Amino acid sequence: MICVCGAQPAWAAAAPSAWSSAPQDPRAVTVKGAGDGKADDTAAIQQAIAASRGATGEGIVFLPSGRYRLTRSILVPQGVRIFGVGATRPVLVLGDNTPGFQQGVGTMVVFTGGDQYDVGKVPEPVPSAVPFSDKVRDANSATFYSAMSNIDIEIGAGNPAAAGVRFRVAQHAFLSHMDFHIGSGFAGIYQAGNECEDLRFFGGRYGIVSEKTSPAWQFTLLDSSFSGQRDAAIREHEAGLTLVNVSMRDVPVGIDIDQGYGDWLWGKDVRFENVSKAGVVISNEDNAYTQIGFENALASGTPTFARFRDSGKAVAGAGPAYRVKEFTYGLTLAGQGAMGTYQTRMDQARIAALPPRRAPAIRALPATKEWVDVRRLGVKGDGKSDDTAALQRAIDGHRVLYFPVGFYMISNTLHLKPDTVLIGLHPSLTQIALPDNAPNYAGLGGPLPMVEAPKGGDNMLFGLGIFGGRVNPRVTPVLWKAGASSQIDDVKIQGGGGTFIADGKPLDFYSRPGGDPVASNHWDAQYPGLWVTDGGGGTFAAIWAPNTQAQNGLYVSNTKTPGHVYEFSNEHHVRNEIVLDGVENWEFLAPQTEQEVGEGGDAVSLEIRNSRQILVANYHAYRVTRNFKPAPMAVKLYNSADIRFRNVHVNAESGYATCDSNGCGTYLRASKFPFENSIVDTTHKIETREREFAVLDVPADPARPLSSSFPTGAKVEKLEDGFWSISGAAVAADGTLYFVDHRFQRIYSWAEKAGLGVVRDNPVDPVNLAVARNGDLMVLSSLGAEAGVYSFRPGTQDGAIKLIASTPAAAHPDAQTLLPVNLWNNGEFKDQYDPANDHFTTLAEMFKRDMAAPKAREYVSPDGSLVLPAFRVFQQGSPDHLGWRFSDTLDAHGLVTARAGERVFLTNESEDKTYSGLVGSGGSVTDLKPFANRGGESVAVDAQGRVYVANGQVFVFDRDGKDLGRIDVPERPLQILFGGEGNHTLFILTHHALYAVKGQ
Length: 1000
Fold this sequence. Notes:
- This protein is about 5% helix and about 45% strand.
- It is built from five helices and 82 strands.
- Among the domains are: about 1-230, 3 Solenoid (Pectate Lyase C-like); about 245-355; about 595-705, no CATH class; about 715-725 and about 805-995, no CATH class.
- By secondary structure, it is mainly beta.
C-alpha cells in the first residue's frame, strides 16, 4: 500500500469529508464491506451498486468511511451515484502489484453506459476494464446522472498501468471532492467527461489523460489542483478542456496536447507553479480546431508559458513571477464578417509574487448536520400528494432542506427565503414537479414560477430536477432573482431527453393529432426553464435544460449582477436555447447547445439582445446529423456590443454504433446542415462565416468586413435562387450543370442559353450526381438497404431509371472513379491510445488509413465510364424511407472524379484541411499530402491547375498551395465546380441559390 506520510504543505493535507454523515434516504443502499484496507471489498461494492438500481436503473450508494481494497474494476452503471459518507473520506485502494494493472491501461472504477443505439452487441468494449470483457459497454452520449463524490483513490506500488476512474460520461454526471494519490500509476482519471469539482491529484505519471468526450461536449474542471506528476498534470486532446481555478505545481508540463491534435482549451484563473518545461504544449498549429485561451493566469518558476510542439516556438514568461491577462492562439478574426488568420496574442506583466489562491468557483454545500429532511416535516414526495403547503412551511421554518428520493408534487409557487438552500442527491430520482394542467398554471397569463428565489438572495439549489409538466402554459420552473453569491449546481430542468415522470407515462401522452409537430406535442408552449431576471445573478454549474415544452432553457434579462455559467447543456428547444436581453457582466464557459431534427430546425443556439460585457468561451453549437433543414446562424445579435467570443465550435456530426457484416464499431458521420454562419449581427447586417475560431471581439460600431475577389474584378453572379438546399452537382461534357434539391427529390439543370430546367422530380431520393461519358446521369440515392444507384438519360420524361447493382471491385483503367469531395474522419469513441508506443493515433493517420482501404464492391455506369466505390452505409431508424442513412458519399456535398493513378483533391471536414492523394483500385486514395489549412465543404481545380476551396468563402491557391486570393460569396458556398462553356465558369452552390463566376 502507499502512504502519504511526513510533513506536508498545507495544500497537501488530507481533505475534510464533504458528507460527514449519511442523509436519511430509504432508496439509498449502503456498502457492507470490511473497509480495513486488507480484505477484498470489490464484490461488496459491486453488490451494493446492483442493489441500488430501481425501475429506471438509477440509484444512490453510500460508502462509509474506511479503506476499501479493490482487485478488479468496479463497474458503475449509468445513473448510479456513489457518495462517500462519514467523518473521514472513504478510500478506494489498489494494493501493490495488483494483477491486471501492469500493462496497457487498467481503471479501478469504470463508469459504463447503456445500449443507446439499440445495437445489441457492445461495439467498443472498454479496453481498460480489469479483467477485460467484451460485455462491458463504455459510458456514452446517453450516460446521464452518474457521479462519485467524497471518495479518495490510492494506487500502490507496482501498478504502472493503473488509472483511478474512467469517466467518459454525458450530461449531469460529475466527480467531486476526491483526492487521487496516483503513486506508481498512469493517471488519476483516464477518459473524462462533463464536469468535475474539487479534485486533487498527487504524483503519478499524469493527473488526467483524456480524449474527446463521448458526446463530444466540453469537459470542465473546477477548483482542482495537480502536483508532482512525472510527465504532465494533464495530457489530452479534443476534450473541450475548460479550467477554472485550477493549479498545477512541481510538474514538467501543465497541459500537454497530444501530437497531431488540437483542442478547444480555455483556462480562467489557472496557476502554474514550478512548471519547468511549459505551462501548455500546443500541437497541430495552423489548424482551425486548435483554439487555446487563458484569462488571468498566474505563473511562478515557469519560464515558458506556451510551447508549440510542431514549430518549436515558445512564448516566454515575463519574469520569475507573472500574470497573464490574456493569452490566445488560433484562428483570430479582425472583426465580424472577417475570415481569420492564425495568431498568437500574449498580454502579460511581471509581478512580485503570486497572490493567494482565489475563492472556489463552486461554493461548498452546508454541512450535512444542518440538513433538515423534508419528509420529517410532513412532506410526502410520493408523486401524488400536493406537497405545496408542507414544502412552503418547511422553507419558512428552516434554512437548509434535504429532499430524499421522490417526486414532490406542487400546485403553486415555492417562495424561497433569502438564505434558503434546497438539496437533493439525484436530479432524475428527486424532482419537484407540477401535474399536467395544474389550474394555477393554465390558460393565458404571465409567467408563474415553481421555485422563486428572492431579489438579492444567497440561495443554493443542488441535485434536484424541476419538472413543469407536459401542459402548463404559464409555468417557468425556476425564477431566479438571487444575488451574485447565489448558486445553482447539478440541477436539471426536466422534460425532453432522459426524463422519468412521476406518473410513468410518456412525455407525449397528451399529444394531439395534426400536421404541426410543435403544436401537436405542446412544444414551445411554456415560459423559460430557468429565468434569471431583475438583478439576478450568481453561479450556474452543471445544469441540463432539454425541455422542449419551454420557449428556451435559459433566459437572462434585466441584470448587471455578475453571472458565471459553467458547463450548461441547453438543448431541444424550438426557437432559442439561450437568450440574453438587457444583460451585463456575465460569462459563459463551456455552454453547449443541440438542435434535434424534430423540434430544432429553426432554433437559434444563442440570442443576445441589448447586452454588454459578455464573455462566451469554449462555446459548442451543435446540430444533429439527422437535420435536413438549413439554419442561418448559431448566434444572433441585436443591439449588443462588448461581446468577447473565445473558442467557438459550430458543427453537425454524430456518432453511430453498429454491428453488421463489416463488424462492430462506433463511427462518426457528418451532416450537410450545421449552422451556415456562427454569428449574425442583425443590427449591423454582418454575417460571420468562420465556424471554428479562437478570437472575435464585437464592438459597438463594427467596421464593415473588406471584400475580396480573385481574380481582381471577378464578379459573383446569382443565377437562380429559391431552393431548399442544393448540392450533389455534376457537369456534362457540353458544360451543362446538373444538381439536386434533395428535400423535394428534384434534379435540375442549368445552361447558359437554356437557363434553369427540371430534369426529374420522381420520389427516388437523388443525393449525388455524376455524368457518364455517353451523357447519362448516374445517381446516388438514399433509398435501398445500402443506398441505391441508378442512371437515366436527361431529356426523357417517362420516369424510367436503370438500376445499377453493386459488383465486386475490379480494375477499370479507362473509367473515372467517383469519390466524395468532403469527408468527416475523426475516429471518435474508440480509445486511440496505444500504451505500447505511448501514442494516440492522430486524425491524419486515421484519415490516411481509412482512405487507403479499397472498397470491396462498386457501382459501374452502364457505359462503363464511371465507377462509384460502395462506401459503407450506416442506418438509423426504420429500413424504409422513414429511416436515415449515412455514408461518406451520401453525406458529401458532391463527388469528384479521377482515373486510377491520378491525383485528386479532397477535404477532411474534421480537420478543416484539404489534401491531395493518389487514386487507386477500389476507390483507395494513398500518398495523401496536406495541401491547405483550409477545408470543409468542397474543392475544385481549374484548367490552370489552381485549386479552389469552399470554407465560408472560396479560397484560391496555386498548384503548390500558395494563397492567391479569395472569392467572397453572398451566401455560404457549399459545393464548387467548373463547367459552362469551355469549363471556364466556376459554379457555386449555396443552400438556397446558385451563383457563378464566369471566365475563370
